[in-house]
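Pasting as-is:
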Amino acid sequence: MTTARDLMTPDVQCVRSSDTVTEAARMMADLDVGALPICGEDGRLKGMLTDRDIVVKVIARRKDPLGVDAGELAEGTPIVVRADDDVSTVCAVMAERQVRRVPVLDGDRLVGIVAQADVARALDNPEAGKVVAAVSEE
């Protein structure tokens, strides 16, 4: 059985909830990613921040990115999967919640992220996985 742990990208870096949106954007650029988990000062997952969040919730509303903390953009309870969840559970969560990336928790500790490209590569059609991976690159 393939699990979220098998699919995930491990060693994920978090943006701290107290970091500004500008700092988060720089981190995204440095890491060449379009989304980062938001972690509180206690190291626990608070939400996800995407490049789209920055554009729509900050830039388009003419807010100062230096004056908005990443934590202000975390909404509700984060959508997550557990490290031992099987691939069908991961797919169901992503489809139901319409997310391209989902954080993976082991207990209450963030251990990785599964992206839609990771799922596509793990399924039976490797060509579909290549296409989704290529389209998903930020």
